[in-house]
Write a structure and sequence with these properties.
The structure holds three protein chains of three kinds.
Chain A: H1 3-11, H2 13-30, H3 36-71, H4 76-87, H5 93-105, H6 110-138, H7 145-152, H8 157-175, H9 177-195, H10 200-209, H11 213-241
Helix pairs in contact in A: 1-11, 2-3, 2-11, 3-4, 3-6, 3-9, 3-10, 3-11, 4-6, 5-6, 5-9, 6-8, 6-9, 7-8, 9-10, 9-11, 10-11
Chain B: H1 20-45, H2 58-98, H3 100-114, H4 121-128, H5 132-159, H6 162-169, H7 174-195, H8 197-210, H9 222-232, H10 235-265
Chain C: H1 2-10, E1 15-24, E2 27-33, E3 36-37, E4 42-46, H2 53-60, E5 68-76, E6 79-82, H3 94-106, H4 110-123, H5 142-156, E7 160-164, H6 172-189, E8 192-197, H7 203-206, E9 209-214, E10 217-219, E11 238-251, E12 260-273, E13 277-281, H8 288-296, E14 303-308, E15 311-312, H9 313-317, H10 335-341, E16 342-345, H11 359-370, H12 379-389, H13 406-418, E17 424-428, H14 436-453, E18 456-461, H15 464-469, E19 473-478, E20 481-487, H16 488-493, H17 498-507, E21 549-552, E22 555-557
Parallel strand pairs in C: 4-8, 4-9, 6-7, 7-8, 13-18, 13-19, 16-17, 17-18
Antiparallel strand pairs in C: 1-2, 1-3, 1-5, 9-10, 11-12, 11-14, 14-15, 19-20, 20-22, 21-22
Helix pairs in contact in C: 3-4, 3-5, 4-5, 5-6, 6-17, 12-13, 13-14
The chains are: A mainly alpha, B mainly alpha, C alpha/beta.
């Protein structure tokens, strides 16, 4: 694992691991069911497996499609990017989860559908942020200075796009990862509950339905910890992609 | 003596900036208004049999549901926006009274909370607490930190503005500076930040209702209908509320974006 | 230069245009220009903002800007363009980017590219200790970033180097040093160098030929005004006194919870007489702006006293003690009376107007506050008068600040400042946002207003000659201290402090005799703040901060060795 990611993970220990441990411990102490702690641990793993891959794939694809939409708006990739960027708020994760549930009831298989349902909002969010940033990086404004300079220095167009324009499109996406993580968590809870997956979100919803605060609150705390973990991973990836973040800037808190 | 008969040559008129954000905000507002009107008029379509929601035509039923969703979202958005703006103002007040440290802490709390999955609180509250007003309060709380963070950023930008120094150089006492300059310039950015709450509370409520833990069934909600139809595997009942919900969410986001864009331009 | 021309006669010039015409929509940016730059020749193209310099350089580099149409011929041999702003990919380590460019042009690997780059940095005079290649450009100081860009160009060694607004935004002494080194390289290596910039940026000083882009034509430049607009009248008695004015800002507590502070202004003494114009000269970090604001008590200085007509302003500007609640007194301690007499001009006039009110409303508010003696129905008349005096039309009162051009905003700022009929104007870089003719027009208007109203004027600026041109007296500031003060004529003709000499040289486009960059406010060297850059520096300079001593009547210098020639 790259070093910046590890560093961010270590930094996030108190905010990520402590709540998860507290949630598991609490549920062992107060939850009505005897094996609640183990179920919660299993559930956290399921939720992580649901959210992490879809977030990673969705964000990466969305960023590329969004940037491409600014480079070549009429190409196929550009059209997809424009579509994703425009459709962002239309497609919240929980609504897609409901669509996936409907499809599963009609006989589709659950896992790929679930991952797709969670990755689409992440892709939309990434495309929505990447496209205008790329537009600015290639445009006539002050943000376009780096690209104009690179062209003036005679670099070929491929290098200019790859090294001078794309990083400027990736930066806001990395800044918006926190919102994407939140959306993915909400979507994952809805998905688990609708598809009856054994995730932590489903545990929480079941306990809340039963009106049992002792069952639901520990799960909520643990899910908060999981969110912090995903956020830390996101920050780590940002540092790893973007050398400016780990050269000499001091640590500025989580 | 300089006379500006024509604009000086060295300052060509800048090309009209694209007003995409404004157009989107306007269309969002139009869509939301149309939705609200249609929902208000829905009982007329259902030829007086509004009570039997399940028997009714799915479109009419979805429109009936919209009344619950939209009115609850409006209530929670007003609450959430107000809470967030109040939070930011409180931070600013603390900054002038107790020093910048207190201000930083107050707003750092908002930043931290905005990174927490607050939307999960809504279904929890729906399952554990009864009354609708409490649910509205919890929903409002999920949006407030984000509003507070944005409103505080606007506030601190304004507090550093040069024209406030110019006003002090004109001998205006602090009270007058506040009344004549600060408040007129603050209203718009703060309201713009408050609008941010609308899409968030609409999404949070729909999410909770989707899980069956949101608004009570008597009120009706798009989320609840979508969730029910998904569980029953009924695409005909699924499509209308899902589409209306997506449309309403898009409209709310467009309004928030448009207000933000207009705010930044001016 | 002659021998170059002889050589060049054999080959065609590297830059040649024939009837080059550039159109932006229906506006002519450049009208049938014939341009020819030989090897080893340095050409400067100056012009105000938006006059088409960037479009011209972009066209020469083969990158026609969007929306610009071109007619005629332009032939440029193997060129390199340093674009406006000098931005590189902000977040990639500089070494990688340099290697990429040098390697792309010369086919070298990373190590040889960096070696060539190091040679280039030598020619730019960057000391080895300052070379931090592993940092991305956005974390380098501006001056080092520009030096690296120039060094990159040196490493590549093109036939033609086009530089758009090179080193703009740097302090004049640093900028001119870099530009002179770049021009030296171009002359030595036979590179055709084309520099574009605003006339006050000093690109003209380093060039062999200067052309001004005005209304689509490339013309020889107008020499700037060097004499005062009208002969200066002798000043009267001193009215405004600063005694030991100092400013420090609290910092976060240091190790052991010790409270720390950063002192940016060190006990300045200053007197301003009636009708006198005082130029505060200094570059970034000299605290001239802090001094200007301290004189206005916006905010009040943390040490010393500011006295206006015998009244201590700091005592009146301080909030009233809890015991004596006099909040309802409209003119507590006479502060408002002093505000009426002392008015500021802001460096960014556009942002000094409330965007939510028309100019007229804001002016009315000023009158209401500072001139309650003018009846409400006379205010509009008064506003019209000052607008016309400041070179605007009375209708401007109805306009919103966002609808004003930069120049109009500057004139409107002047109008607001004279609204209350003040006796002193304290101007902090009032023309910083303006260039070329607009700048001259504004400064002329300011001086006309000053003469008509017999105002005292404090003019803080980083442009040495321009500031002293209309001044009676000048104060040269460095790192929050006065290093030289004398009457304007002495400072213009025979300044003694090495920093004053460097600023004077830079403002005339000559080579300033200072090396390196100004140290940051957080890392000032012990002793004289200039000693690491100074040609006169000796060991003793590190031990004591030189005190201001009188070397001739009315002429003070703070330098240990002002009267000794440079060693070596």
């Amino acid at each position: 694992m790259p070093r910046p990611v590890i560093r961010r993970l270590i930094d996030a220990m108190p905010t990520a691991v402590l709540p998860m441990a507290a949630g598991v411990g609490l549920s062992a102490l107060v939850a009505p069911q005897p094996d609640a702690a183990m179920a919660l641990l299993r559930g956290l793993v399921v939720t992580l497996l649901l959210t992490l891959p879809s977030l990673a794939v969705g964000t990466a694809l969305g960023t590329l499609a969004g940037s491409w939409a600014a480079v070549a708006p009429r190409s196929a990739g550009g059209l997809i990017g424009r579509l994703l960027a425009g459709a962002g708020p239309l497609l919240p994760g929980f609504l897609l989860a409901a669509v996936a549930a409907l499809a599963v009831r009609a006989g589709a298989s659950a896992a790929p559908l679930g991952w797709t349902a969670l990755s689409i909002p992440a892709a939309c969010q990434a495309a929505r942020l990447a496209r205008p940033a790329m537009d600015r990086a290639l445009g006539a404004g002050p943000e376009g200075g780096a690209v104009r300079m690179a062209r003036g220095l005679g670099l070929d167009e491929r290098t200019v796009l790859r090294h001078h324009a794309l990083p400027q499109a990736v930066a806001p996406v990395m800044g918006g990862l926190r919102a994407a993580v939140l959306a993915a968590m909400v979507g994952a809870v809805a998905l688990e509950s609708l598809l009856d997956l054994p995730g932590a979100g489903a545990l929480m919803v079941d306990s809340a339905r039963a009106g049992s605060a002792a069952g639901a609150v520990p799960v909520l705390v643990a899910l908060g910890g999981l969110t912090a973990l995903l956020n830390a991973l996101g920050l780590g990836v940002r540092d790893w992609i973007d050398p400016a973040n780990h050269s000499s800037t001091p640590y500025d808190g989580p | 003596m300089a006379e500006y008969d024509q604009p000086p040559l060295s300052h060509p008129l800048p090309p009209e900036p694209p007003r995409a954000g404004f157009a989107r905000g306007l269309s969002g507002a139009a869509v939301l208004a149309a939705l609200a009107l249609a929902c208000a008029a829905a009982p007329l379509m259902a030829d007086g049999s509004a009570v039997h929601r399940l028997d009714a035509d799915p479109v009419a039923a979805a429109l009936l549901d919209g009344r619950g969703s939209l009115s609850f979202a409006l209530l929670a958005a007003v609450l959430g926006g107000g809470l967030g703006i109040g939070w930011a103002l409180l931070a600013g007040l603390l900054g002038t009274l107790a020093g910048s440290r207190a201000e930083r802490r107050t707003i750092a709390a908002a930043h931290r909370m905005a990174g927490w999955p607050l939307a999960l609180l809504v279904p929890l509250a729906g399952g554990l607490v009864g009354p609708v007003w409490l649910l509205a309060l919890v929903t409002a709380l999920t949006a407030a930190p984000a509003v507070a963070a944005l409103a505080h950023a606007e506030l601190s930008t304004l507090m550093r503005a040069e024209f406030l120094t110019a006003a002090r150089a004109a001998g205006l006492p602090e009270g007058e500076v506040l009344r004549r300059h600060l408040i007129p310039n603050l209203t718009r950015p703060l309201l713009a930040a408050g609008v941010l709450a609308l899409p968030r509370v609409l999404a949070a409520e729909s999410f909770a209702s989707l899980l069956g833990l949101g608004l009570p069934p008597a009120l009706g909600s798009w989320g609840a209908s979508v969730g029910l139809a998904a569980r029953l595997g009924d695409p005909v009942a699924f499509a209308p509320p899902a589409l209306l919900l997506a449309l309403a969410l898009w409209a709310a986001c467009a309004i928030a974006d448009g207000v933000q864009a207009g705010q930044r331009k001016s | 230069m002659n021998h170059i021309a002889v050589h060049a006669a054999a080959k065609p010039a590297p830059v040649e245009t024939a009837a080059l015409t550039l159109m932006l929509g229906d506006r002519v940016l450049l009208d049938r220009a014939n341009l020819r730059v030989e090897r080893g020749q340095v050409l400067a193209v100056t012009g105000g903002a938006g006059s088409g310099k960037t479009a011209l350089l972009g066209t020469l580099a083969g990158q026609l800007p969007a929306g610009v149409d071109m007619a005629g011929d332009a032939r440029v041999d193997g060129h390199l363009l340093i674009a406006q702003g000098g931005r590189l990919a902000p977040r990639r380590p500089l070494a990688l980017q340099v290697a990429e460019v040098v390697g792309h042009h010369l086919g070298l690997d990373l190590r040889s590219s960096l070696r060539r780059m190091a040679d280039g940095l030598d020619r730019m005079g960057v000391p080895a200790a300052a070379r931090r290649f592993d940092l991305p450009p956005e974390q380098l100081p501006e001056s080092l970033r520009w030096a690296c860009l120039f060094a990159m160009a040196v490493a590549v060694g093109p036939a033609v180097l086009l530089a758009d607004a090179p080193a703009a935004g740097l302090d004049p002494t640093v900028r001119l040093r870099l530009l002179h080194r770049l021009a030296d390289w171009a002359r030595a290596d036979g590179v055709a160098l084309v520099l574009a910039g605003r006339p006050e940026d000093g690109v003209a000083g380093v060039a062999d030929h200067v052309l001004t882009l005005r209304r689509g034509r490339l013309l020889p430049p107008n020499p700037p005004r060097t004499e005062p607009l009208t002969p200066l009248e002798p000043p009267g008695t001193a009215r405004l006194h600063g005694r030991g004015v100092g400013m420090s800002y609290p910092l976060a507590a240091g190790p052991g919870g010790k409270s720390r502070s950063l002192t940016v202004l060190h006990g300045i003494d200053l007197d301003l007489r009636t009708g006198e114009t005082l130029a505060l000269l200094g570059e970034t970090g000299s605290a001239k702006a802090t001094l200007a604001r301290s004189l206005l008590c916006l905010p009040p200085p943390t040490a010393g006293a500011v006295v206006w007509m015998g009244r201590d302003l700091m005592a009146t500007a301080a909030p009233p003690a809890a015991g004596e609640a006099r909040g309802d007194d409209p003119d507590r301690g006479g502060l408002r009376r002093a505000r009426r007499d002392l008015q500021p001009l802001f460096p960014d006039p556009a942002s000094s107007f409330d965007p939510a009110m028309t100019l007229g409303d804001q002016f009315g508010l000023v009158l209401e506050s500072l001139r309650p003696d003018i009846p409400a129905d006379r205010r509009d008349h008064r506003i019209d008068e000052v607008l016309e005096e400041a070179g605007l039309r009375p209708e401007a009162a109805l306009r919103w600040p966002s609808a004003l051009s930069v120049a109009e905003a500057a004139h409107a700022g002047l109008a607001r400042a004279i609204l209350s009929e003040p006796r002193v104007l304290i101007a902090d870089e009032p023309a910083a946002s303006l260039s070329a003719e607009e700048r001259e027009t504004f400064l002329d208007t300011l001086m006309t207003v000053r003469d008509r109203r017999r105002l005292s004027l404090v003019l803080a600026t980083e442009r040495y000659d321009e500031g002293l041109r209309d001044a009676h007296r000048g104060i040269v500031m460095l790192a929050g201290r006065v290093v030289e003060s004398a009457d304007a004529e002495t400072l213009r003709t025979a300044p003694l402090h090495p920093y004053s000499r460097a600023m004077r040289a830079a403002s005339r486009g000559e080579r300033p005799a200072l090396e390196g960059d100004a140290p940051s406010a957080f890392a000032q060297p012990a002793g004289c703040p200039l000693r690491r850059r100074c040609p006169l520096a000796r060991e003793f300079c590190a031990q004591a901060i030189p005190a201001l001593e009188e070397v001739a009547p009315g002429h003070h210098v703070a330098c240990h060795y002002w009267d000794t020639p440079a060693e070596g």
